[in-house]
Structure formats: C-alpha cells, structure tokens
Amino acid sequence: MDKVYDHKHVESKWYSFWENGGLFSPKSGRKYFSIILPPPNANGRLHIGHAMYVIEDIMIRYHRLLGDSTLWLPGADHAGILTQVVYERELEKKGQSRHHLGREEFFKQTYQFTQENKKQMYAQLRAMGFSLDWSREKFTLDTEISKAVYQTFKLLYDDGLIYQGNRMINWCPRCTTVLSDLEVSHTDKTSSLWYIKYPLKDSTDFVVVATTRPETMLGDAAVAVNPNDTRYKALVGKTAVLPLLNRDIPIIADSFVDQEFGTGAVKITPAHDPNDYEIGERHSLPKIQVIGMDDKMTKEAGKYVSADKYATRKQVLADLESQGLVERVERHRYNIGVCERCDTIIEPQISKQWFVAMNKTGKSGKTLAKDALKAVKSGKIKIIPERFEKIYYNWMGNLHDWCISRQIWWGHQIPVWYKEDEVYVGIEPPKGPGWFQDTDTLDTWFSSGQWPFTTLGWGQKDDSDFEKFYPTSVMETGYDILFFWVARMIMLGLYVTNDVPFKTVYLHGLVRDERGQKMSKSKNNVIDPLNVAGKYGADAVRMALVFGTGPGNDTNLGESKIRGMRNFTNKLWNVGRFIIDMKPEKIKPHPKKTKEDEEILEKLKRIKKLVTHGIENYHFGIVAEMLYNFIWHDFADKYVEHSKPRREDSQPILEEVFEEYLRLLHPFMPFITEDLWQRLPNKSGQSIMVSGWPKRN
RNA sequence: GGGCAUUUAGCUCAGUGGCAGAGCGCCUCGUUCACAUCGAGGAGGUCGUAGGUUCAAAUCCUACAAUGCCCACCA
Q: ipTM score of the complex?
C-alpha cells in the first residue's frame, strides 16, 4: 500500500465494479426503500449544488446495507422555457434563430442538445459515486412518461379541473410566452409617480390621478375613487375625458381604492393591470388592449400605434406636458415583476390560456390544494426541517389557479385537438382529417410534478416498480423549489394515484462559497464538482458537503474544507495501512483484554448506535462529525498508539473495530471504504456495499 | 405589507436544558518508529443586546438590534 492515498487509482475502478456487478439495482429485502432523484435540467453541466445528492446516496447506501430492497432512480428534466432560452442562445452564436429552423427542426436539435448534456451530467453523477440504478433511467420526454403526462391532463380535464380561460396573465414579451405566478420574480425599483390631470366632461375642473405607468392611460376605462372618500363624493357617476384620446370614461366608486395613496383617485386600465382587471370585472368596464404581445402599442393607442411601449411613455408624458396636464412628479419606490428566466419586465395581458383549478372540487370529489394541504397537516407527509411546513401551509392556502400553457416549442405539446367547433382531449391524436393540435406547450412543472409515479411506471402494463416503490420513501431536494416542484408533486401525486408521492420531504440548503456568497461565474467563486473531485477525491467532496451542516440551512463550502476532508481520507488510509500492511506475523487469537481494549470496543458500540440513530433522523452533519472524530481521535490517536507495543494481542481488535467502522462510514465515503474493506482478511471480491449494517450489540 | 431564518473562537460553521465544539488559520516543539495531506502541546469565546422561566440557559419565553431569504395585485 502506498504511503499516500491516491483516489485516482481507486474511484473509477470501484464504480465499475459496483455497476457491472448490478449492485445498484434493488434486490429483494425486508422492506422497500426508494428515492427518485430530482431530475437535473438537461441544458448544461451539473454544479456543486447538485452534489448535495450525496445526502440521498447516504440514505440509499445505508438502507442497502440494512438489507432493504433499495431503489434510487435517476433521470433528467427537459426544463421547458429554460432549455429553450439556453438553446436559442446557442443558435444566436451561429447567427440563427428558432424561427429560421421552424418548430419541428428546433425541437429535434434541442432534443439532441439535451441528450448530449444528459450524458455529461450522468458521467458527473457517476464520478461522485452515486449508487443510482442506471437501468431505470428516465427522461421527462420519454414516450412512456409523456403518455402518462397526457393521461393526467385528460383526467383533470374530464374532471372539470383543467379549463381554458381568457384571463389576466403574466406575459414575458421577450420569451413571448405566458408565465405562472411562480415564474415571476419581484424586484424593487425606484421610479416616478406622475400626477396627471383628467379634465371633467362639460367642466373646467380636473380630477388628478397618480400613476407609475403613464403609457397605460391610453387603455383607461375609468377613474375610480373610494366610496367613502368625502373629497370625491360629488364626482362619482360623472364623466371624465381621457386626455390625448379624448375618450369619455366614467368615474366610479370601488372600495379597493386606497384614499391615502396618491390623490385617492386612480386610473383604471383593465387590460394591463391585475387590480384594474378585477375592478373592471366588477363594474363591467371594457378591456382595451393598448400594448400588444410584442410590447408595441396597438391601434387602440391611436397615433401611438406600433411604437415601443417605453418610447410611448416618454411621448405620452411630453404630450401631456405640452397641454399642461402633468401636475407634478414624485420619486417612488415600487415592486416590479420580471421573468424568472430572462429578467424582462412582465406585461400583464389578457389572454386565452389553460389553467388547473386549485381550489375547485372536481366531479371526482377531489380538490387539489385542499387535499395537498391535508396530506401534510395530517402527517402523511413530513417535511424536514419542520419550519417549512408552516411556509407550505401558507402558500397552499392562498393559491390562484395554475396557468399551465406556454407559448414555447420545447416541451410536451398540449394534448388538445380542434376541428371547427369540436375539441378533443386525449393521449393519441384523434382519427380522421381536419384536426389540428393546440400549439401551446405544457408548463415544465406539470410534467415534473408527476415524476414520482411516472418514473415508476404508473398505469403501464408492467407496473411492478410502482407497486413496490410507491409511495417513495424520501424526497430530498433544495428548499428553493418547495413550491415549484414539491407542492405540485404532492397535488398531482395525490390526485392521480390517490396516495402521497413520498412520505418524507428532506430539504437541504443552498451551497454558497466560503464567505456565504452565492456562487456565480462573474464572481469567479464557482466550484465545479468534477474538477474538485478530480483534485481531492469524490469522497472528500462528499464529506465536505455534509460535514457539520444542518437541514434547510445554506452551506458554505470552500476549497479549504474539501482539503481538510482529503486529509481525513489520507488519515483513514494510513490507519488501514497500519492494520493491513503492517500486520504482525504472529497473532494471539484470544488475548486478555486491556482497559484500552474495553474502552475502544465500548466506544465502537456507542458510535454504532449514534450513527444509526443519526441517519434514521436525518442528522447527517452530526453523524459525519462523529465518524470523523472517532477514527482520528479515539482510534488513531489513542488506541492505535496504545496497541503498538502489543501488536500480537491487539491485532484482532484493531481489525474488528476497523472493519465495522468502515461499514459505518461507507454511505458517506464509498470509494475509500470499499478499497480498504476489500484488503481486510477474507473480504476480497465481495463488496462492502452489501456487507450488512453493523449490529448494534 | 406579511412570513421565515441567522447572529457561537481570527474566518466558515455544528451544537436546542447539564463542566463551551469542529474544520481552516495562528503559536511552540517534534521527522528511524502507519500517516508532515502528520503527531504532541498551546493561544483564542462574558454563545448579538436587555429582561424572564429553571437547581441549571448558547439551548426555553419576551422585547430589541443587525443581517439574509421567501411570499405579496396598492396605482
């Protein structure tokens, strides 16, 4: 054995040994234990955050050692809008656009692109030592998965829970698609609040309204005041004249209006503001669309037609100014919605889209949000750390309907076909001529929201995996996608399978750099998992990610911590070298035990109990620390030193303690533990992976 | 506007009722003797502030402060 541990000689060798030996596939066992890997987006490489999958591998390897029938199923996500944006950028570099290619060719190329990324990503997962069952690998656009997704759409549609509606939605003018509420991020912005005079009809008086978006006034349908506002009592029911367009608009009373804000009178633009839309509905106001889907003014905007909306803002203000209708301008801080994927400012628009009803009860008697809320409240699903349950309740209790259609090309095309007035919803296209399919695509989270049961073959002829492994045991993922993904999986899982998709949700934190900053290429603080695993070993990276971290808390990871864990692997290696390579020639079989012998055996017993209890209760950070301290300080520093003058006596205990310890450490550091374990007497050729979890006694 | 979290050694963080911990860094000493990617020893903290509960508080409660994050349709 070399004096220094070299992971390069060890890691790929053992991974092939495990994989070729079929050790990642479930064997029959006393219980079922399953985790579905959160599918990474197939539009690039994995980053260090994905290496947090190590927590799943720890659970999986632990349960496999326990003798459970254990499945960890890998896959990848086509990631709708994001992948389309990424691939469009690729095309841009070549001076092309998706419109040059056309829908079919664009889809084909993007598919190819994701398949190449998948290969790279899977190589990265292998390099980290993840014991995934590759024979069951899935992609969200696989034929069988797509069929199941369509089946769910049809179920919801037939149940009255999916509907098409003309409603106010979030429109991204750059992506030219609608977005769900969740895909809109909000950022603070300082801008101006313009006070504009609207002349009263047949009067020389004015009513002054305040607005942050003067260009939308072209679509105004009313001026609203609070019914209790004494200042404006006399004006309600009168008519104002919209400047620039000289259109008559009513002055109405609505309790939504805040008397304290601005002048207490507000312009109402039902077609471009969610609140105004609501007020418009209550007062049957016309919805005048003045901003088109391309962010240019429509013909409703009169002389401003075809102009960009930001240019129009300037022009409108200049025109109002020239007529003396701008009373004053204030500085104003407010919140603006931007596209989560491309940062473009969202334009509220009215548009016909597909929605999933969150709070309506279907003919089946099921109600998506309520049922999903109940599953957690009743304890059928447990969220760790617990504080996220409160956040979940709060979100689940205040849901708007979920818009699931997207005007993009990449993804599952909506399974709805039209012919004249007929609508057909199904899994296969309808027979006969004249049908055309809805051109929209499903929200990517609609398909990933079904991942736990679609991957297990729900509804297929051979659904044995579903029978055995569903509900899955644990869903381990980042807290940042609790709403996007976890909540949707709970809703759709319960709806389709009548059972929860998983029993426990374990949420990990974000991986940040050494000083707690978010990793980004521009800050040059990104850690590439493959790079760093190549340098220090996958075992060291794995250990660094879990060592001393708690669930749901962000983890700060710098190279120094990984280096520290690399030193630990070397320490472990040398303990092994001492026991295995420098074995005494004569060994006494049954020596009298010294005080130190008794002590180390007692400590081993204790740590077995603590490690088992710790893993069962998801305290991975503490367990990692205990394992670290045991071998380094209790075993190497004290016991190994003590054993030196009496090797013939102590060798059996050294071997016994070391052997059991390797099995305890194996879920955390699979490569080095396998390598050392196989060097122990009578172990060669077997795998530590299936050697059984140490008994507690 | 609502909610959540964090605040512990120079740095990064564990620790949730019982004598203050780890990694990295720092200081001193030590390379025949498993390991210098090491060993032995050491310096360094009134556990954000102020109250309270308790035999006992970093840990539970209350208030405050700082920082971060999430959610939200006030023009």
A: 0.89
